[in-house]
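Deliverable D5.2: sample structural annotation.
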Amino acid sequence: MGVTNATIRAVNGLTARWARTVEDGTVFSAAGVWPLLAFLADGAVGPARDELTDAVGLPADRAAPAARELLARLAATRGLDTALGLWTRRTLKLREAWRAGLPAETHGVLSGDVAADHAALDAWAAGRTGGLIERMPVTLNARTELVLAGALTLRTNWLRPFDEHPLTPESGPWSERTLLGLGRASALLDRVGVADTPHGFVTELKVLGDNALDVHLLLGEEHMTPGQVLSAGLDVLARRCPVVPGPRLPYGDVGPGLRVVRTRSERPEPPTLEVTTAAFGLTGHHDLLKRHALFGLTTARDDRVGHFPGVSAHPLAVGSAEQSAMARFGALGFRAAAVTAFGAIGAGIPQLRWLTTTVRARFDRPFGFLALHRHSRLVLAAGWVTDPEPFREDEEYF
């Protein structure tokens, strides 16, 4: 992808800090938030600049160039679409140096008619995400002077599709439901592994897309929280905790939802990885100001004074900061999108003569996921699945 390691660490670091706060089913894209925070940091002063710098994870004078590079690299990556939008009141004069630092052709106008402006922003969000996000997550009112928004869309098809089938878990929170199950088998045992983390063991399954955009499913021990499981997945990406890959796993119950057995077969067979999971569709809406410290917005939301003289001589404060996101995991592939906006303001009896090894991975209780770029390990979306898709006969799911 060509993004610097410092930028990847910064974006993944924001994902990690968010992951620690997860308590229920949701989806979030730090890659959708981070560039906007970086552009705001570039135009801020005083405590607001310091807090945004901490949230961004890069010096403020390097933040905007890094954000421009990230957006350009994402846009050039197959399966990813990105867009940045800026809208201002006609009476708001921007600092030319700050405006020039944004990608070209991003600047629009707010008319002051809240309903008309909302309709225009909604159309932008829907158009930039192919209809996956239909509304711009921003609060407009008579005081709104500026809106800065970003859109990120991810699409990948699996290298090896899943088969669909009814899935009825025998235990756990989904045991009373019939889910849309997904199953497949392969000889690639290294797609699964068990991580040893400070809070418990976590099973990681890599589901590879045909354009180097992958999804890693994460199942922790039952006592682990969503934040602990998602944080473990990020630690695995950063190589901060040991992982035993599938080919080196011993026999028996070796990790959450993971069992290695010896089975008999009619003919010599290579070891097999059998995967069972549940299809899911998630949406998430995040008011970033409710977690203002996490996103470096504590001082920036104080509207008694201005905090962004690098953006405009007119005093500005952050009046709203929100993200709407979605993710869909099905038999054929994965789709995710996020829009973030800141408002300032067989037959017979076989002869089983051979023994073979089978690794069985089963994700049939709440689990986490990370969607990422395979080579750079940049996390594009993350989430926690609590309400998977139900099984309905004669219905097309993807």
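Annotation notes: Confidence is low (pLDDT under 50) at residues 346-352. Helices lie at 5-19, 30-43, 46-56, 60-75, 96-100, 114-128, 226-237.
The annotation will be released with the project's public dataset once the embargo ends.
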